Amino acid sequence: MGTRNFNLDSRTAGYTLAAYGALLMSGCGGRGGPADPQAHTLTAARACEEADGKVMGDARLKASVVAAGGDVPVYCKVQGVIGTSLHFEMRLPERWNGKLHFWGGGGYDGFIQSISGPDANSRIPLVALKAGYATVSSDGGHQSELWNASFALANPEAARMFGSLSVPTVTASAQKILASIYGATPGKSYFEGCSNGGREGMVSMQRYPKMFDGIIVRAPAYNWAGLMGHFSRNAKAAMAPGARLSADKLALVARTVRHACDALDGITDGVVANPAACTPLRINLPALRCDGGADLGRDCLSDAQMAVFQSWTTEAVFQGGSTFRNTAWNLNGNEDDPLNMAPWLTGNGNPVTTEQYRYEDTTIKNYLARDPHADSLGYSYDSNIGALVDMAALNDATEPDISPFIKNGGKLIMWHGGADPGINMNSTIDYYDRMRKAVGDAGANAATRLYIAPGVNHCATGVGADTVDLLAALDQWSSGNSAPATLNARKLDAGGAEVLGRPLCEYPQYPRYVGAAGDAAAARLASSYVCTAP
Predict the structure, then answer these.
(1) What UniProt keywords apply to this chain's record, in alphabetical order (predicted)?
(2) Tell me, what's the pLDDT at 33?
(3) Which of 75, 138, 211, 485 is deepest in the core (most CB within 10 A)?
(4) Distances (CA, A) of 507 to 332, 378, 496
């Protein structure tokens, strides 16, 4: 089963990816010959001179030097177009380290993410650039808003590009561009992405196992069919009569969870770091039900509001395929964080503004009902099984047998925020467990790792330590120096100063506090915690 998606198949009919085919034939994954050592000394300005106005790797290029500013070093920005609608951007450092870093997209793509942003996730491309990597990102083959899937309604080529082809197509071009400028393909090629970017990494690993030497998958939206279906179920529950959840109601739930579970990791600090012990029985959410089930105010939940959490904390299963399912979200004590449940599910009483509603709405309109005027809240998600199967064939990355990737020397690091309100951590754990069963413990131990970051929201933010350099860990591992074990994660303030540190533990371990009781300074230090089995 694991070999069925290695080559371009019927799902990608209509594409003649000659460049990518050549990349596969060469072994890909950055395993080309070493560049002339002198080539790595090319400055950003010289690299731009080599690229500007040229056609390389089937792409029309425009290049310009970006001056250093703030935390961003000088670099050469290379903008490329393949065909008519696949845009990408490469950033070439002042001194190239001979390696390529592909930073994945997010949502339904549609634009190229900037080199840096305000949170830990958006700063990852900058981390790679500062380490000397040539970095690349694309728009997925279309131009739109992050949550807009209208490109898929009448443009099957754009749908296939988003589903699985934009990454290999851009990778092929990036390899050829670097070879043209520096004299050889990269010695190592890595992919890193979160959310849809994580899905892109898993698609690459499963369908094109020779493309990358290593892949970092953060909070992956890999089971598109199941995830969007659960979004739909949650949105319907959140918009049912009497179900609107205010900020006060979320605060009530979050306090209840923290009261029950915060101390289970050895310290009461607002971070529920031992989720295995934070069971529904311990939380006892039914105790919050208002008398008679009516909404009696801020200190209880009506039956309709309880139904929202019932949808949230139970698995969703749909007809059409064994993988058309999505695991339950945990209650984690972060529900009242400004970037947690409110923007994703409740909208503080206005669910139509939320991310889950936007994504399920555009998915149903453009992939399933295939009608831009369809009422997604009135649509039965698995009523058109053929359309659901077609969408899964385009976008899903649920194959657990990654033996070809591992046998080719690939290394995989998975990461997920423990308080993620967008894509729940249990979904990633479920895939990781199924993958280990498929490839065997020996293969999984040699080539894969999973980390859960307590208290971290979707891709970044939250009360937990959301900053960790997984790329450095992957490169050390792929280069044969050392396999990752416990890593160091940090939470930074707006100026880049460390607010707290935590060990990032290999799953299923969690960080348990062993420092002095009542010592606020010790509680902020990673050295005060020990990775512990639940």
Answers:
(1) Calcium, Disulfide bond, Hydrolase, Metal-binding, Serine esterase, Signal
(2) 45
(3) 138
(4) 17, 39, 28
Domain(s) of CATH 3.40.50.1820: residues in the chain: 10-222+397-532
Q: Give the whole-angstrom CA distance, residue 411 versus residue 325.
A: 27
State phi, psi for 521 to the nearest 5 degrees.
-65, -45
Q: What is the DSSP string of 385-434?
A: HHHHHHHHHHH-------HHHHHTT-EEEEEEETT-SSS-HHHHHHHHHH
| Token pair 């020996």 in the structure block, residue | 442
What is the DSSP code (8-state) at residue 203?
H
Q: Are 231 and 205 in contact (CB under 8 A)?
A: no
Residues 43, 109: Cα–Cα separation, whole Å = 31
Gap between the Cα atoms of 295 and 292, Å rounded: 9
Tokens of 342: 């409110």
For strands 529-532 and 411-417, give the pairing. unpaired
Give how far the C-alpha of residue 455 lies from the chain's centroid of Cα atoms, to the nearest Å: 16
Break the chain down into helix, strand, coil percent, rounded to 5. 40, 20, 40
pLDDT tens readout for residues 67-110: 999 999 999 999 999 999 999 999 999 999 999 999 999 999 99
Q: Three-state SS string across 8-42, please?
A: CCHHHCCCCCHHHHHHHHCCCCCCCCCCCHHHHHC
What's the alpha-carbon Rg for the chain, to the nearest Å? 23
3-state secondary structure 52-92: CCCEECCEEEEEEEECCECCECCEEEEEEEECCCEEEEEEE
Is the Cα torsion angle 497, 503, 507, 511 positive or negative in sign?
A: negative
One-letter-per-residue 3-state SS of 214-278: EEEEEEECCCHHHHHHHHHHHHHHHCCCCCCCCHHHHHHHHHHHHHHHHHHHCCCCCCCCCCCCC
Contact by Cβ (8 Å): 411, 474: yes
pLDDT digits (tens, 9 = 90+) for 135-187: 999 999 999 999 999 999 999 999 999 999 999 999 999 999 999 999 989 99
Question: Which of 213, 101, 129, 205 shows the shortest CA–CA distance to 478?
Answer: 213
Mean pLDDT of the chain: 93
Unique residue bearing structure tokens 């450092």: 93
First to last CA, the chain: 33
| Token code pair at residue 267 | 């310290």
Which residues neighbour 278 within 8 Å (Cβ) at sequence distance 6 or greater? 257, 260, 261, 264, 272, 330, 331, 332, 333
Look at residue 37 and tell me whether its pLDDT is greater than 60.
no
The tokens describing 286, both together, are 């039914």
* 316 contacts 356 by C-beta, under 8 angstroms: no
Return the number of other C-beta atoms located less than 10 Å from residue 410's C-beta: 22
- Give me the pLDDT at residue 29, please: 53
Q: Which CATH class is domain 10-222+397-532?
A: alpha beta
Sequence length of the chain is 534
